[in-house]
Amino acid sequence: MAHPTCDEATFIELIQTLGADETARKLGIATRTIHQRRARIEKQRGIVIVSPHARSTLRAEAVSEHPHRLKAMVHTGVVLIGSDSHYWPGVVTTAHRAFVKFAKILKPQIIIKNGDELDFPSISRFQPIGWETRPKVSDEIDATKDRLHEITMACPKARRIWPLGNHDARFETRLATQAEEYANVHGVHLKDHFPAWEPCWGVWINDDVVVKHRFKGGIYSVRNNALLAGRTLITGHLHSLKVWPHSDYNGTRFGVDTGSLAEPYGPQFVDYTEDNPKDWRSGFVVLYFDKGRLLWPQIAHVIGDGLIDFRGEIIEV
Fold first, then answer.
1. Are the C-beta atoms of 213 and 163 separated by less than 8 Å?
2. Which of 69, 78, 252, 269 could form a disulfide with 108 if both were Cys (CB 3.0 to 4.6 A apart)?
């Protein structure tokens, strides 16, 4: 353990300022002990303590791989948005099949997968519950490649964008914190495995519609997103699938939750939610633009196995 006069806050500051090796020399202890204590603190507090070297290389590289913001212009056309697929090996949901069908029929100008396309339970910071089976990282990546390829083939001319989700981020976070020496090696970035999709933190469409994985939390997050962002804000993360309009002197803007392409009671969720009832809905969102103006966002909602409700019509998939 580090020197007893070095409290936790000071220890974190030393790592962030000096790095592990210099902190070890300053405190007169082994570098291995520094890494052990850092790992212990990260696990207890749910944080990542980044050294200067990692910040200047791995973190800088991560930002370049996931640009801060992408811009898109849609004059008249369709944007198809699905999120929180948590793709699981061997599972193809009704919502995913419908998403592929809509991509083929509507021929959207842009397709956005709004984060958490993978689940990555095996590299979660949360401890496993009992001895449940978790898929291998490689199997999750392969399954996600298959599902995204289906979407690409359905509408190959669409621009394909993927705002990073918190589950997606587990892939690079694990490598950045546990294997710093692999920086810049091909394959350590999630983007390396999905080159057909543009990674980012958020997409700005026509400067007044923002699509990103998450912003505010809680049951009123969709309303608060539109209220506090000052823009129509379209998010995933909460799996709630809803539209909340907000009007003021500036006009009407929308808070939209894109729901989940996974099933609410799928194998990804049954253990860590303890099989509790969930206020989640499976489906996705379709945006129609007319002369650059966003029309009322439309929801495609799974109402049964192989059945989608879209604008009052039951569609079989």
1. yes
2. 78
